Fold this sequence. Notes:
Blueprint: E1 6-10, H1 15-31, E2 34-42, H2 58-69, E3 88-95, H3 98-108, E4 113-118, H4 123-129, H5 132-139, E5 144-148, E6 161-165, H6 170-186, E7 189-197, H7 212-215, H8 219-233, E8 241-248, H9 250-260, E9 265-269, H10 275-281, H11 284-291, E10 296-299
Parallel strand pairs: 1-2, 1-4, 2-3, 4-5, 6-7, 6-9, 7-8, 9-10
Antiparallel strand pairs: 5-10
Helix pairs in contact: 3-5, 9-11
Amino acid sequence: xxxIRKILFPTDFSDTSERALNYALxxxxxxxAELHLLHVEVLYDEDPHNPKRHFPDTETxxxxxxxxxxxxxxxxxxxEGAVDxxxxxxxxxxxxxxxxxxxxxxxxxxxDLIVMGTHGRRGLRRLLxxxxxxxxxxxxxxxxxTVRARRDEDTPRPVRHILVPIDFSQHAREALTVARxxxxxxxxxxxxxxxxxxxxHPAFYNFGATSLKDLMPDIEEKATEAMKKFFRETPGAEVxxxxxxxxxxxxxxxxxxAEKHASDLIVISTHGLTGLExLLxxxxxxxxxxxxxxxxxxxxxFRRSIVPSGTG
Length: 312
């Protein structure tokens, strides 16, 4: 079983974050974890010269946070009175940006898991506004569970199928170990997926090759065998798994696979790119979190782990 003692739920009081709260409450109940509700007040978010603009006092914010959990049963997923028995802490911070404040709080309080909503912005709107969730995913000292806003689903759904993208890195191995533990706890089946990137160098065009399959007709079989070996050599609980190989672009097609195959959760690792490297290459993990039809658990192989030592 995973070790989750402290869960952080950052909120901006939007409908998106409220849906994520259902997951935070459910997980706090499941693991007996301490739940921290945090609101970050972003300074200078509006015109600072507007005389009508004012900051609510801390007690007003804390009362609003308390109201979120009052009479909340995680969308009917928890027994009556379960939330009242949770150890819930309420916090209010002010900062010029939300994401650094969330990450700082997580580090100070030794948080094991952050649960937060994401608006799933794309295109120009995302380019202009950015994403707090994506910045937290990239810089948090612990795993992050992102929950995308969906009108047709407000409550945590049963976890029966867990999708784990595999790129054969040590980062992916850490994610697979976490996924195995979750699958064992919920009686779920793993879906291991490897994406063959479809872009080939123009030099190959002269040979009539437009994809890796043209060059290596048996590449799917080899990738499947490699995933089976990777699964056998990765520590974790004994669970059932299926193996899938597709051709495409990982950031786009992992989410599409989850939609097509009714995945209830995606567990994926992040390589922690920062600075210019992140600007140029982007992050498959962030793209998946933005597009996925289900919650995405982002594992940080190089940061705080929720896998008990000695697992496997």
